[in-house]
Amino acid sequence: MEWYLALGILLIPLFLLMGAGIPVAFAFLGVNILGAWLFLGGEVGLAQLVRNSIGSVNNFALAPIPLFVLMGEILLHTGLAFRAINAIEQLIQRVPGRLAIVGVLGGTTFATLSGSSIANTAMMGSVMLPDMLKRGYHPTLAMGPIMAVGGIAMLIPPSALIVMFGSLAGISIAQLLIAGIIPGLLMATCFLAYVILRSRLRPADAPADDAPTSLKGWARWRPLVRDVLPLFLIFVAVVGSILTGWASPTESAAIGVFATLVATVAYRSVSWKGLIEAVHSTVRVSIIILFVMVASTTFAQLLSFSGAASGFLSLIREWNLEPWLLVLGMLAIILVLGCVVEQVSMMMITLPFFMPLIATAGIDPVWFGILMLIGLEIGLLTPPFGLLLMVMQSVAPPSIRIGQIYKAAAPFIVIEIAVLGLLFLVPVLATGLTRWIQ
Fold it and tell me: pTM of the predicted model, to two decimals?
């Protein structure tokens, strides 16, 4: 069978199933069963499918995923995340766009403690959006920063998606986790600069002073010192243990969970109800991710056995593209797919093709990995099916139209594309910190 026919047999039913609303894992599973029967030898192929499923999740490198998710869920369900946001809100006073600034700073803070973009956006939207709209913020300025900083949780460790991406792509998870720090903070800085600039240029979009109280001196700084700075020790424990080589990503994730539990005890916010809810949420997310890992392993093998991957890669190699042009082409594919396909599906579809091309062209896989992760992050905000757009719609008041949500995301999409371009031109911004763990 020609490679393009095999590729069509695998991809066309996949897109049809996802377009029909079938969950990603089950859509891939259905295609895998079809492909195993056709390309792996009927019943023998189905038996191989089962063996692949067991082997795909029997991987120690995947252990950080539930641990990173658990960290964020514990902070969320025990209330420590809300205390941190309140502390930041009390510190920022009497400046234009105060709550929008708090949204960026608070969302970035939670991103350093949680591995979930969805949880970040849902929490910040539920906590801050009603108050911002009540105080007279323009809806786009109220929603935009909350959605944008939600995506940063993909880049800044602990990030469950980075662990999944590194496992699928065969890239060092430790290096990817460290490499995401500077791009994530750079993006947060750009978001903050935009909010401040817009608030000054268009004061009607943000109240000049919406602080409920005017705390001074130690009373103003005390909540930050008490409720925020100690939580950064969790981030230091996770990242520091990797940077110094004391722990692998899995061990650092376990250290992070332990530090998070210690923090809940120290703040006297621990409760059996909160811990049980955190564990339940973690189990749900982890099961979904493991199902995806099962589906992706077999799908990649089907692309290989059918000849679809090798045929497509041979076609690309015949073009003799320069490495930089090859990377631009792959990023363009990610940005286009981001409009209609969610992040996990994009990784599963593209990585079996992209990573062999990266290896052949001699491109730094960590640098490319960060670029692709930013491309995936942009997909969270691009209409019509950006995941964070849907999350914002679910927490916004009924009066907010979907068009307003799209408009709120637009300037932050531009900022993210600009940061992506900067990292493309200056690779050291993405790879500089990784020298510590080589």
Answer: 0.86
Type of residue numbered 324: W
Both tokens assigned to 62: 């995947």
Question: How far apart are the C-alpha atoms of 51 and 271, rounded to whole Å?
Answer: 41
In terms of Cα–Cα distance, which of 393, 399, 292 is closest to 27?
292
Cα 289 to Cα 160, 245, 252, 342: the distances in Å are: 9, 27, 20, 13
Q: H-helix or E-strand containing 266?
A: helix 249-266
Instruction: Work out the burial of residue 318: count CB atoms within 10 Å of its CB; fewer than 13 is exposed, 13-18 middle, 19 or more buried.
Output: exposed
Give the integer Cα–Cα distance in Å for 239 and 178.
Answer: 7
Residue type, 301: Q
- Summarised one tens digit per residue, pLDDT across range 244-278 is 888 888 899 899 999 999 999 998 888 888 889 98
Residue at token pair 């670029």: 371
Distance CA 272, CA 274 (A): 5
Average pLDDT, the chain: 86
> How many angstroms separate the CA atoms of 38 and 49, rounded?
12
The token pair at 126 is 């539920």
Q: Which of 303, 290, 428 is nearest to 354 (CA)?
A: 303
| Tally of helices (H runs) and strands (E runs) in the chain | 22, 0
**How far apart, in Å, are the Cα atoms of 304 and each of 95, 128, 356, 384?**
57, 48, 11, 32
Would you mind telling me the total number of residues written for the chain in this entry?
Answer: 438
The CB density around residue 197, as the number of other CB atoms within 10 Å, is 11
Count of CA atoms in the C-beta half-sphere (13 A) of 10: 30
Local confidence band at 289 (pLDDT 50, 70, 90 cut-offs): confident
Give pLDDT tens digits for 52-85: 777 766 767 778 888 888 888 888 888 888 888 8
> What's the DSSP call for residue 138?
-
Task: Retrieve residue 238's tokens.
Answer: 């996770």
Q: Which two tokens stand for residue 74?
A: 């514990």
Cα separation, 290 vs 28, in Å, equals 13
Domain ranges of the chain: 3-437
Cα–Cα distance, 131 to 227 (Å, whole number): 21
Residue 270 — left, alpha, or beta (φ > 0 → left; ψ -120 to 50 → alpha)?
beta
Residue 270 carries which side chain, given as an amino acid letter? V
